[in-house]
Amino acid sequence: MSTVDSPPAPASRTTRAAAATADYLDQRTGVGNAVKEFARKIFPDHWSFLLGEIALYSFVVLLISGTFLTMFFVPSMTEVHYHGPWAAMDGVQMSEAFASTLRLSFEVRGGLLMRQIHHWAALIFMASIVTHMMRVFFTGAFRKPRELNWLVGFTLMILGLLAGFSGYSLPDDVLSGNGLRIADGVARAIPIAGSYISFGLFGGEFPGMELIPRLFTVHILLIPALILALIGLHLLMVVLHKHTQYPGSGRTDKNVVGYPLFPVYVAKAGGFFFVVFAVIALMAATMTINPVWNYGPFDPGVVGAGAQPDWYMLFLEGGLRLMPGWEFVIGQYTISMNILIPGVIIPGLLFTVLALWPFIEAAATGDKREHHVLDRPRNAPFRTAFGVAYLTSFSILVLAGSNDLIATHFHLSINDITWTFRVLFFVAPPLAFWITKRICLSLQRKDRELVLHGHETGRIVRFASGEYIEVHKPLDAHERWLRVQHEPRRPIEIEPAEDSRGVRRKGYRLDAAKRRLSKLFYEDRVEPVTPAELVAAQSHGSHDALPLAPEEHREELTAGASGSRHLAPEPEDTEGTQRH
Amino acid sequence: MSTHHDPSTDLTTRDGAPLPERFEDPGLHEHRARVGDSDPKAQKRAERQVVVLFAISILGSIGAVVAYALVPPGETVGSMRMSNLLLGLALFLGLAGIGLAAVHWAKALMNDHERAEDRHPTATSEPVRVKAVEALREGVKDSSIGRRGVLKGAMVTSLALFPLGIAVPLVGNLGGDWDVSASKRTLWRRGVRLTIDPSGRPIKASDVTIGSAFHVIPENLEEAEHPLDEKAKAVVLMVRMDPRDLKSEQGEGWSYDGIVAFSKICTHVGCPVALYEQQTHHILCPCHQSTFDASDSAKVVFGPAHRPLPQLPITVDDEGYLVAQDGFDTPIGPSFWERLT
Ligand code: HEM
Ligand code: FES
Fold it and tell me: Where in this protein does the record put region Disordered (chain A) (predicted)?
C-alpha cells in the first residue's frame, strides 16, 4: 500500500520529485508503514534531553575523524629513527606508531585538525554521557519500564571509558606509555592470575611488540562496533517506551506531549548535530590537545612531572594516589591492598551500585507501575542526596588525581593535600548527603507554602478595622499542579511475621529487609498539599487576620503534611517532616 | 504576614461533598501564537536569515578547500598551528552555518503546536500474550524437547563447548611463551657496567659528583633480544651523597663511596621514579608521589608504595668504572602474587 499520494494542488517540482521517490521506495519496501508510524511521532522537548543527543553526535564525529586517522596511522611498535620536519625529534628512536602520529600532525594536511577533533570529541563524548546519566538519575527516568535501558546506557559508559583509554594509548608517547605501565601494575596486583593477565594483555613482558596493534583492533573495530550496536538498542528502546516528560499540566503517565518528529525534530536534531560538530571543530582549531610532539616517544626510563590522563580516568589515578601503602603477605603470596582497593574494589563498588540503582530503588519503593513523568529532584530527596554524595566521592577522587597540580598551583604541600583528601573521602559524601536531603525537604516545604498561601505581592492593604495585611496572589491552576502533581512516597507496609494462626510466614525476612530499605528512603518526607489542606488554609487565612511571627508561620504552613487524610489540618502538629 | 485570596481562583467546595484526595490536572496550557505566526513580514525576515546562514556555510566549506591548498603545516609549530587554525575555522563555519540555519528554521518557521499522543502500557495486551505463550508451547511440543532429556543435554553441552575451539587457541596464544617468571630477571649481573641512559657511555666513579643523579642502563642492553622489555626492568637511578649521610643500605657494602643505585621502577605500580631531591635525598615518583629515602635503603617515606626500591649492589672495576656486584636480590617493580616464590 502507498501512504504517499500525490498532492491534489498543483505541486512544485521538488514536491513532485519527492513524492515519486517515496512511491518508488514504498512499492519495493512497504516503508510507508514505518513513515506513517514515525513521521508524526511526538517527542517532548527540554534542554536536558539534548545531553544524550550530544553523546550520539560526538560519537558520529569520532567515527568520521577516526576513519580519517586510520588512513595514516601505523599501528606498529617496530622501532625506527625519526627523520622529518619536526627538528626537535630528528634521529630519535621511536615506534612507528609514534612516528606516524608525528607525520599526521606535521605532514598530513588537516591531520592535526582531525587528531584534535578526535580527541576533543572523545572528551565531549564522555562528558555528555556522564551528564546524560546524571539527568536520567536525578529525574528518576530509569524507573519501570526503563531499567534495562539504564543498563544499556551504563554499558555504553563503560565502553566509552575503554574506547578512550585504548585510543589515548595508541600514539605510543611517553605519557600514554606510563598510563599503560600503571594499567600493567594494577593488572599484576590481582591475586593468583595477575601475572598471567598482564602477559595476556601485552603478549609477554611489558611493553612487548604486540600491544599497539592489539589496542588498535580493540579501538577501531571491537569497541566502536559494540558501541554502535548498543546505541541502536538504546534508541530502539527509547522509541518503544516513548520519551519521558517533565511534570506539568496535561502531562501524565498515559500520554506524551511534545512536537512531531517530522519536520520539527528532524530539523532541530539534524541541525544540532552540525552545531555539536561545529563546536568540536572550533575547539580543535583553537585549542591544542595532546601535543605528543612535545612529550616524545615512550621510553620505559622517562616520565614527566605533572602528567595527567584524560579527565575520565582521573578517578582511578586519584584513588591510587590516596591509598596508603598497605600490602601483606600470606604464606609466600603477596596481596597488594594499596592497589587492589583503589584499582579494583572501589571502582567495582561504585560502578556496581550505579548499575543496580534502578533495582535497589524499585525494591525500596515496592512500586510495580510504569513511570513516564519525571521526578523533580526535590521530590525524591533520598535519591537526590545519594546522587550528590556519589558525585562528591567521585569528584574527590578526580581532584586527588590532580593533587600535584593543586599543590604547585596553590603552593601547598602534597602531604597535606593527600591527607585532606583522605579525610574528605570519608567525611564529605555523608555530609553532602545530609545537606542535599535537607535542601530537598525545604524546597518541598517552600512548594507547599506557595500552594497554600500564594505569591507575595508586596501590596499592603489596610482594612477598615485599621489592620494591615499583605495581599498574596494565589497560584493559577498550572502553577499549582506543578507543585502538587507528584504522589507522596511512603515506606512500604509489609504483612506481619506470623499469620492469623501464628505460623511464621515464609519470605518475611526478605520483606523486613525491604521495609528497612524503604524506611531509609522514605521515612523523612514532605507530602504534597491536598485539596482539603488548601481549603483549610484559605479559610484559615481569611479568618485569622492576625499577623503571625514569620517563624511560627513557616512551621504552621508545613504542618499539614500529616493531614492528608483529614479534612481539617492539625494546627498543634508543628513537625514539618513526618516520622513514623 | 497574613494571606488574602482572590476567591475566583480558589478551590470551591461543593456543599457537603467530600474533597478529592488529590488535585486534578488542569490540562495543557493554551497555545500562544508567536509574533511571527501572523506576520508575513517577520516570516520573510526569518526566511532570509536562514538563507544567510546557509550561505555562510557554503563560504566556509569553500574556505576549507582554499586553506588546504594554500597553507601547508610546514616545519615549525607556528606554521602547523596556522594551518590547523585556518582549516579548522573554515570547517567550523561550514558546519555551524548548516546547524544554526536548521535550528532557526525549525524554531521560527515550523509550527510550534504542542500535541499529546497516547501511551500504551509497555507489556503486550492479555490476548496477545496468551497467543505468544501458546505459540511457544506448541513449538516446544512440536520439538518434544521437554520429553527428550538426553537430546536436550546433548544439545546444551555441544553448544556450550563449541566456543572452546576458538577461545582456547586465542587465550593460549595471547601471552606469548607465558614465562611469567621472566619479570623477576633483569640484565644486571656480576661485572655488568653501569652506563648512561640513553648514550650507553660507561661511568667512572670519579665523574660522579656529590649531589648528582644519573639515569643508568646496563651496558649489555643493546645486545638483548628485546631491548625495550629489558630496559623496562633494568633502569636504575644512581645518586651520590656524602658517605656520612648514608644511614643504611639494603646490603653490607652495596654502595661505593656514597654512590647508591636503586631500581628506577616504582614498587607501587611501576612508573619510573625520575625525580631526585639532593637536599633531602628523597627520590620521588611523579605518578602517585611515593617518596623513597635514598640515604636510608630507599625506604618509603610517603605515598602509596609499600616496599623500598630494590638496591643494586655496585662497586668499581679495575679501570675505575662502576659495575654491578650482582643482580637485584628481589624482583623489581610492582608487587605481584608470586613475587616471593
Ligand atoms: C568510540 C569512541 C572513541 C573514543 C572515545 C576515541 C578516543 C580516542 C583518543 C582519546 C585518541 C587519542 C588521540 C590523540 O590525541 O592522538 C584516539 C586515537 C585514535 N583513534 Fe579513536 N576514539 C573512538 C573511536 C574511534 C573510531 C571509531 C576510530 C576509527 C574508525 C578511531 C580511530 C583512532 C585512531 C586511528 C587513533 C590514533 C591516531 C592518533 O592518535 O593520532 N577511534 N581515539
Ligand atoms: S607508580 Fe610510583 S607512586 Fe604509583
Answer: 537-580
Question: Among B198, B267, B270, which Cα is nearest to B232's?
Answer: B270
Is residue A12 one of the residues assigned to a domain?
Answer: no
- Domain of A180? 44-303
C-beta of A215 in contact with ligand 1 (< 6 A):
no
Q: What is the pLDDT of residue B8?
A: 38
Query: How far A498 CA lies from chain B's nearest CA (Å)?
Result: 33
State the pLDDT at residue A122. 98
Would you state the cell numbers that stand for residue B91, as one nine-digit string? 570547517
Count: domains in chain A: 2
- Cα B170 from chain centre: 25
Name which residue leads in pLDDT, B119 or B321. B321
Enumerate the residues of chain A whose CB falls inside 8 A of the CB of residue B87. Answer: 109-110, 113, 285
Distance CA B277, CA B266 (A): 16
**How many angstroms separate the CA atoms of B93 and A282, rounded?**
9
Q: What pLDDT shows up at residue A199?
A: 96
Report how far Cα A52 is from the mean position of its chain's Cα atoms: 9
Q: What pLDDT does residue A550 have? A: 39
Is B224 an interface residue toward A (CB < 8 Å)?
A: no
**Beta bridge partner(s), residue B116:** A257
Four-way CATH pick for B181-324: 3.40.50.300, 3.40.50.2000, 3.40.50.280, 2.102.10.10: 2.102.10.10
DSSP state of A156: H
- Please provide the average confidence, as pLDDT, over all residues in chain B: 90
What per-residue confidence (pLDDT) applies to B142? 85
Q: In this structure, are residues B77 and B58 in contact, taking their beta carbons and an 8 Å threshold?
A: no
List the CATH number of the domain containing A186: 1.20.810.10
CB A488 within 8 A of CB A527: yes
A448: part of which helix (H) or strand (E)? helix A414-453
Percent with pLDDT over 90 in chain A: 68
Q: Give distance in angstroms: CA of A102 to centre of ligand 2.
A: 29
Minimal CA–CA distance to A519: which of A364, A353, A381, A363? A364
Among the candidates A284, A303, A322, a domain finishes at: A303
